[in-house]
Design brief:
With 193 residues, the protein is of the alpha/beta class. It folds into two domains: 140 residues, Rossmann fold (3-Layer(aba) Sandwich); 39 residues. The longest helix has 17 residues.
């Protein structure tokens, strides 16, 4: 899997070793990790970026979110809007997200997130590997598979109508239809036993 990792740079002196432990643990489990530098001087550099550099930084973030299979964020320090925003973008793009926090550093706000693609987990150096392994298994179960199919203009018009009326993406509506049929299909249930 390709995993995008991010964390706050404002606490890099305190959490830098934890950040690197997370990255190395994911790599040791056979996955590739994308991440931005997280040192304090990186934060200073970001604060002095030009408008073009900020746009480029944002585009790079969006590209990494789009191409990754999963997001892992270290969120022990509830520091900035950036971390929450990045988590929100990842969830909007249907990416499984593991938000890791150190012992006694839980956030009631993040703890209240009920998205089916969001895991909020406490970790210690001793439990980090098991926590990440569990999250990777979770991500594999919650990663969408893509396929293309063709439908008539009349069907697309209906999907557009439902999407506007219910304020949900067309894909969500189609998944809901499939899930309802899957749950009602006794023949399928028997085949899975």
């Amino acid at each position: 899997m390709l995993i995008y990792f991010f964390a706050t740079t404002s606490q890099s002196q305190t959490y830098q070793q934890s950040y690197m432990d997370i990255i190395h643990t994911i790599e040791k489990l056979g996955h590739k990790v994308l991440y931005e530098p997280m040192e304090e001087d990186t934060r200073q550099q970001q604060q002095h970026m030009t408008a073009e550099e900020r746009q480029s930084f944002y585009r790079r973030f969006m590209q990494q979110i789009n191409k990754c299979d999963m997001v892992v964020a270290e969120v022990s320090y509830p520091s900035s809007i950036n971390i929450g925003y990045r988590i929100s973008i990842a969830l909007e793009k249907n990416k499984p997200v593991l938000a890791l926090h150190a012992k006694d550093k839980a956030s009631p706000f993040l703890d209240g997130n009920t998205s089916e693609r969001f895991l909020y987990e406490e970790y210690t150096p001793a439990t980090l590997r098991k926590t990440i392994e569990r999250a990777l298994n979770f991500a594999e179960q919650h990663t969408d598979a893509r396929f293309n199919f063709f439908i008539s203009p009349r069907h697309i018009n209906f999907l557009d109508f439902i999407s506007r009326k219910r304020k949900i993406p067309k894909s969500v509506y189609l998944r809901e239809l499939i899930e309802r049929d899957r749950q009602a299909n006794h023949e399928y249930k028997e085949s899975q036993s």
